[in-house]
């Protein structure tokens, strides 16, 4: 990837998360990236193409990190320990990606709120197959009586993943809850352990 293209993607993450696609001009992107404005069309075919490639690159980074580990785990017999290990890995990866790319996560959150006008293909082609892998893992654990069979795997995944990303969104809003939970912003391991405890052990004594 050329330096100019990389700079444009970095500028896009910053400006699109702050201003949105419609309120960000190609001149804004060129100024923020210190790149020639013509390179936006050359590399991406325009502002919308830059927006989509930014999100696609993020999705592919997640896929390339998670898919090999999930595929390898599916080759082995599932046990309670291996199931917990896999869920822990998935949560840790979500936390790491949110901390590494907060601006892109904010863009995707806005996309979801608006009905995914420009990211539906990315969700269907990249994120959904990953979610299906999780569902297969969950259902395999149910078949082995590791997980309760009356829990819907897809709903579990949505609640767990959206709960995690929702935590960061609430922290960004600086509401009263921020001071109650801010310790988890700097301690990803503690956040992961809390989520594992909530979703795998439950809250009842």
Uncertain residue ranges:
none
Q: What structural category arises from helix and sheet content?
A: mainly alpha
Largest sheet: none
Count of separate DSSP helical elements? 11
Our estimate of the beta-strand percent is under 5%
Rg (CA only) = 19 Å
The count of strands amounts to 0
What does the average pLDDT come to?
96
End-to-end C-alpha gap: 53 Å
Summary tags:
mainly alpha, globular, 0% strand, 205 residues
Description:
By secondary structure, the chain is mainly alpha-helical. The chain has helices spanning 3-19, 26-33, 38-44, 47-73, 80-100, 102-113, 120-143, 153-173, 176-181, 183-186, 188-201. It is globular and about 60 Å long. The termini are far apart. The model has no long low-confidence stretch (mean pLDDT 96).
Show the helix and strand layout:
Elements: H1 3-19, H2 26-33, H3 38-44, H4 47-73, H5 80-100, H6 102-113, H7 120-143, H8 153-173, H9 176-181, H10 183-186, H11 188-201
How would you summarize what this structure contains?
The chain is mainly alpha-helical. The protein has helices spanning 3-19, 26-33, 38-44, 47-73, 80-100, 102-113, 120-143, 153-173, 176-181, 183-186, 188-201. 79% of the residues lie in helices and 0% in strands.
